[in-house]
Amino acid sequence: MPGVAKSALQGDLSMPTEWKAVGEVDKLFVFPVKSLAHVEVENFNTGPFAAESGFMVDRQFMVVDKKDKFTTSRKFPSMSLIQPEVTQTHLTLKYPGMEDISVNIPAVETLEGCKEYEIFGDPCKGFDVGPEVGEWLSDVILNDPEGGMRLLYHPKVDSTRPDKPTNEEIAPNMKPGDKPYFADTFAYMMMSQPSIDELNKLLDEEDVDLVVEEKRFRPNIFINGEFPAFAEDEWAYIKVGEVIFRNSRACDRCVFTTVDPFMGDKHPQGEPLKTLRKYRCAEDPAEKKAYGSAPLFGVFLAVEKCGNIKVGDKVCIGKH
Predict the structure, then answer these.
(1) pLDDT category, 23, cuts 50, 70, 90?
(2) Minimal CA–CA distance to 202: which of 254, 95, 279?
(3) Cα separations (Å) of 48 from 82, 109, 256, 313?
(4) What is the DSSP-derived secondary structure letter of residue 278?
């Protein structure tokens, strides 16, 4: 079965001194609330823990259930249809067939004393936004206003997530401070059109009646250019405009890829995850142990040089 021989970056991982253009930014996305709908933007600032556009900060809000476990579209795919809007003072949530709800964004600058939660084993803190939005989310997600859902907020301060343990074998280019607010594992994820095109070709070869596009995979940065599919896996550093990103590691994929971002339901045959597992799983023994059956598609990034990036910016990599 074909797969990914080795995803960990190899060779010289020093910062390039010379760059060459390989493509450009096609689309940019911010996800103000973890697992809810995206907001497509023309540009964003690259904060150390999240993309920031206007008053939006990526994954600055998160839904938890009555047991304080974070709740996502993996289990409740209709969550991906809840559309967030953010102003300086308010978060508004919209869902088809429901009255909109608007709540004050908490004016807190510290999470000291706040309750601790977990995201895939990572402890983190969040400020409870209050019962009104919790009841609304419970109604939308569970059809039960008394279902116990809550909305958490992380102010734009240092992330409360722990430093990442180093792992030279799996992620030699990762640093301990590569952490987000409420995103799963990293602050930024990048994908490319050539890789999406290749997946669609594979789906066609497997006789799968599905054509995918980038929104299903929830990238922050979507690029295009005249480069091969999955070439981004091997770029140690990526310069977008004047911002420099470091490739922390490959992005391992889960059942979220089966959620249609426009319909809010899962593919009945578990696609495209099934096809991705056939062609994009790790083959290296250490990586197999780390990623299991999770296929690799897209790359997680960290910011080395902050700034603003915009649609149309040139995407450059180091000259060899």
Answers:
(1) very high
(2) 279
(3) 26, 17, 25, 20
(4) H
Residue reference for tokens 């933007």: 41
The string of DSSP letters for 217-270 reads: G--SEEEEESS-TTGGGG-SEEEETTEEEEEEEEEE--GGGGB-TTT--B-TT-
pLDDT tens, 211-237?
999 999 999 999 999 999 999 999 999
Rounded CA separation 28/23 (Å): 14
Residue 260, burial from CB neighbour count under 10 angstroms (0-12, 13-18, 19+) = middle
Phi, psi (degrees; rounded to nearest 5) at 196: -65, -45
Residue in the structure block whose two tokens are 């919209």: 94
Per-residue model confidence as pLDDT tens digits over 50-71: 999 999 999 999 999 999 999 9
Question: What are the CB-based long-range contacts (under 8 Å, 24+) for 255-259?
Answer: 255/74, 256/72, 256/73, 256/74, 256/218, 257/216, 257/217, 257/297, 259/73, 259/74, 259/77, 259/80, 259/216
Burial of 231 (0-12, 13-18, 19+ CB in 10 A): middle
Q: Find out whether 298 and 272 touch, Cβ atoms under 8 Å.
A: no
SS3 content of the chain, % helix, strand, coil (to 5): 20, 30, 50
Compute, in degrees rounded to 10, the torsion defined by CA atoms 138, 140, 145, 149.
10
Tokens of 313: 């910016």
> Would you say 276 and 200 are in contact if contact means Cβ atoms under 8 Å apart?
no
Residue 315 near residue 252 (C-beta atoms within 8 A): no
Per-residue confidence (pLDDT) for residue 66, from 0 to 100: 96
State the pLDDT at residue 1. Answer: 52
pLDDT single digits (tens) 257-275: 999 999 989 999 999 999 9
What pTM was estimated for this model as a whole?
Answer: 0.97
